[in-house]
Structure formats: C-alpha cells, structure tokens
Design goal:
It comes from Seriola lalandi dorsalis. By secondary structure, the protein is mainly alpha-helical. The protein contains 2 helices and no strands.
Length: about 90
C-alpha cells in the first residue's frame, strides 16, 4: 500500500462529520424531551398551562447549560491530558 488509502476523501470526511453532529444533536433533543416531559407534564391536555410552559422553558435551559458545562469540562480534561502526555514523552 502506498499510504494514500489510509486517508479518506475530504468531502466524505466532512459529510460523515456533519451527519455525526446531526445524530448527536437528535440524540440530545430526544434525551432533553424525555427528561423535561417526565419532569413537567402532569396530565397531557389540549393546551399547556403557564406553569407547565415555564417548567419546560426552565428545564430546557438547565439541560442546555448542563450539557455545555459537561462539554467544556471534557475539553479541559482532554487538553490537560494532552499537555500531560506531551510533557511525559519529552
């Protein structure tokens, strides 16, 4: 093999990355919907009352805040591990 087979087509890589992001987003929306529905929906009806609506708004905001916090912590952890492994390999 000449080594070129190991690298995929950049357009294909880009497509796969976008599709992966879409899938992660859909999973996140599904998870958020499930969590907030269980927390806020007492009895389904034809309309949301203001209390239930506010519960959903707050739930979604907290879910987004928490998800963002976790992503930031994971990035920090990966960066610190990367710099630690670079230091150890020197």
């Amino acid at each position: 093999m000449d080594g070129q087979g190991a690298t995929a087509d950049p357009q294909l890589q880009h497509f796969i990355e976008i599709e992966s992001q879409k899938q992660r987003f859909q999973q996140l929306v599904h998870q958020m919907t499930e969590v907030c529905w269980e927390k806020c929906m007492d009895k389904p009806g034809p309309k949301l009352d203001s209390r239930t609506e506010m519960c959903f708004v707050n739930c979604v905001e907290r879910f987004i805040d928490t998800s963002q916090f976790i992503l930031n912590r994971l990035e920090q952890t990966q960066r610190s591990r990367g710099s630690l492994s670079e230091t150890m390999s020197e």
